[in-house]
C-alpha cells in the first residue's frame, strides 16, 4: 500500500493482499496507521490487489525535518510527476482475459503523465498537463513510475536533469539528459529554466528489454515558461513545443549507463560481512497443459505463462494472510522451505533445457535470522526471454553493491562490489541477461513480500515471502508492538478471482489528474500517519462476458440425492480436503465428516444436512484430485463448470465467485429455507422415466385437471432425455403417478426429497436467500459457470445473485446445459463428489460422451 515505507514495528500496515492482510471488501473501509521513522523523500502509495493499482495510486512525499536542509541546493518548489499506463478498456478485463487464456496480457494503449496521455492524442490535447516555470527558476521533479508493466525513459527537451534522489535515498548529484525508471521506482531530478523562454515537452516512452510486445506510444506534458510567446505572429499559428531526443526502445546501453552512475550521497552503512548469502534466479517460464488446444492454454505452443524465483512460482494463500498465519501459528498457509539457491544449477543466460522451463507452484517463504547481514544476488535467466525485472522488497531499503551481464561468478564478481557508496533503493532492476547484488541488515521483523513490480510477472508468480527476520525475543527487546486488533482478517473471506471490475474506462479526454492523488508529510523526526481507504461497492459487470465461451474441459458437481454413507472417507487422507471438513464443523456446529462417513442415513438424507455434505465433499474431491499425478494440470485446464441444482453453488465456489466459507453458509441457509418451505405444505417430487418432455408436460396437464390449484404440478428438472422430474402438491404427484402408465411411461420413481423443489412451493425460501445473497461477497467467476435457470454463463455478480434466488423456484435446465456443452466442443468432463449420477446423464444425451468420476 505505502510503497517504500519501512513499517518498523508495524508490518500489518504494509498492505499486500494475503501477505500482510486481506483485501478491503467492497463497501467497507480500513484505516492504515503507521509511523514514519528516519525516512524522507519521494515514495508513493498504491493498491496492492491484482491490477487495482492501474488507477489507485498517488504520491507520498516526506519532507526533511524542520530546519534540516537538502544535501543539495534548495529548489524553488516541487513538481510531482506520476507516470502511468492506460488501457482503452477496463484493466480488470485485460487481466481477466490473460488469466483465462494463460497468454500475456494486452499491452496498454497509452502512457500518462499525471493522468493524461498528452497532446499527441486528439482526445486529450486540450487536457495536456502543463507545468509553468519562471526563467532562471530551479524546481525539483519528483518522478514516479506508477505504470503497471513497463520501464520508461523520461526526458525534458533541451534541459539537463540533475539526479539527486532515487527511491527516497539521496544520491551524489549528476547530470543527464534522460533517466530510466522502472515500475515502482522514484527518481528526483532538479531542472533549471535556463533555456530560451518557450514551451518544452517532457516525454516518456518505453524501455523494452524483452523480446515481447510492448506499448510503443509516447506520453507528453509541457514545461511552459511563464510569459513565453506561444504564437509566431499574425496568421502564422502556434509555436510548437520542442520535443526531446529519447533513446530507442531497446537501448539497454543507455539504461545501464544511467543506473551505473547512481551513488549514495555519502559513505553508506552497507554490511561488509555477510551472514546469509542467497542466490535467486528470476525469470519467466511456461506451464504445460494437459490439453494444449484448450482456450485456457494460449501461451506459446499451447502452454500458460508463468514466472518464478529459483523455479518457485509464488501462489497467494487462499485462506489467510501469510503474516497472520505466521504470528498466530496457523498451519497449512505457507511453508518456509524456499530454496536459498536454485534447485538445479544451469547456464542461466545460455540455451536452457526445456525441462527447466516449468516452475513449481507453491506458497513458500524464506526465514532470515534477526539482524543478519544479508546478500541476495538476483540472476536473470534466458528462459522465454531475458528481461530487466524491477524487483521490490517490502519493509527494507537495500544497497545495490554490484551488477553485470552474463552469469554471476561468485569467485570473481564480489571483488568488484562497491562497498563504499552503493546506491540505496527499495526496487532494483535485474539487468536483462545479467545479475544484480544487494545487501541489507534484516532488522525489521515481519512477513515481507519480494516481487517483480511488473504486475504481469507478479501475477504469473515472480514473487516470494522473503524475510521474516525471525528473533525469539525481538518483540520484547525491541519493544515491538503486538499484532493489532484491527488487523484485516481473511477468514472467512476467500479471494475472488478474477478480481472485481472497475468502472467502465474513461475517455482519455476525461482521465483523472493523478497529481491530485497524493499527500505530503512533514518529517518531524517521527511522523504518525493515518490513511483511511474505502473500497467502493462493485459496479455493474458486462454479464455477457462469457457469452462466446468455447469449452474443452468441464468440472461437474452433483446435487441433492447423490449423498451416500461413506462419502468423504477418502478426504481424511489429504490435508487440504480434511481442512474443508474442519472449517465446515465450525460453520455448521456439528461434525459433518462423521455424519458423512457413519450416518445415520436418515440424518444424512435430510435436506439441511445433505446439501452442506454434498457441497463440502464435492470440493474435497477437487483437493483429492489436486494431489494426484497430473491432477493440478487437469484443474488448471478446466475452462467451464456447472452443477446440478445445489451443485451450482459448488461450481461457483470452485470458480472463485465466492469463498468456500461463504458458499457453505449460503448452502446451509438454502437447505434450511427449503426444508422450512417444504414443511409449510404437503408436496413431493417424482421422476418420470421413458417419456420425452412434451409427453411429460401433457401428463402434468392431465393431472392438474383433477386437483386443486394448491396441488398443481409442473416439470421441475429437465434432467436428460427420458428422465424428467415433476414437482408439486402431494395430491397432484399422486395423480401423476396414477396416470403415468396410460401415457406409456416406463416407470415413476418417488424422489427422497423434502418437498416440491424448483417450483412455487419454494417461494417462502426466496426472501431468506435474497437477504443472505445480498450480504455475501460475490465476484465474477474466473471461468464460465452455467446456470440451472437458463443454461447460460453469467459474469455480473448482481445477476448471479438474482439467479441463485430464483433457482429454487425455477425448473432445472440440465438437459439443455449438457447438450450445449457437447455441441460447443466439450472434450473431457469430470464429475467431482459423491455418486456417479452426472456420468449417467451425459451418456443419455450422448452415448460417446465420457465423464471421469473423482469421488471423495
Characterise this structure.
It comes from Thlaspi arvense. One of its GO terms (molecular function) is [acyl-carrier-protein] S-malonyltransferase activity. It catalyses: 4 hydroquinone + O2 = 4 benzosemiquinone + 2 H2O. Its main location: secreted. The chain has 856 residues and is α+β, with helices and mostly antiparallel strands. The chain has three domains: 72-265, Immunoglobulin-like (Sandwich), CATH 2.60.40; 277-470, Cupredoxins -  blue copper proteins (Immunoglobulin-like, Sandwich); 553-854, Malonyl-Coenzyme A Acyl Carrier Protein, domain 2, CATH 3.40.366.10. The chain contains 18 helices and 38 strands. The strands form nine sheets. The protein has a six-stranded mixed sheet, with no helix packed on it. β33 (713-720) and β34 form a beta hairpin. α9 packs parallel to α11 (647-654) and α13 packs across α14 (730-739). The chain is elongated. The two termini are 41 Å apart. Residues 469-486 and 491-517 have low confidence and may be disordered.
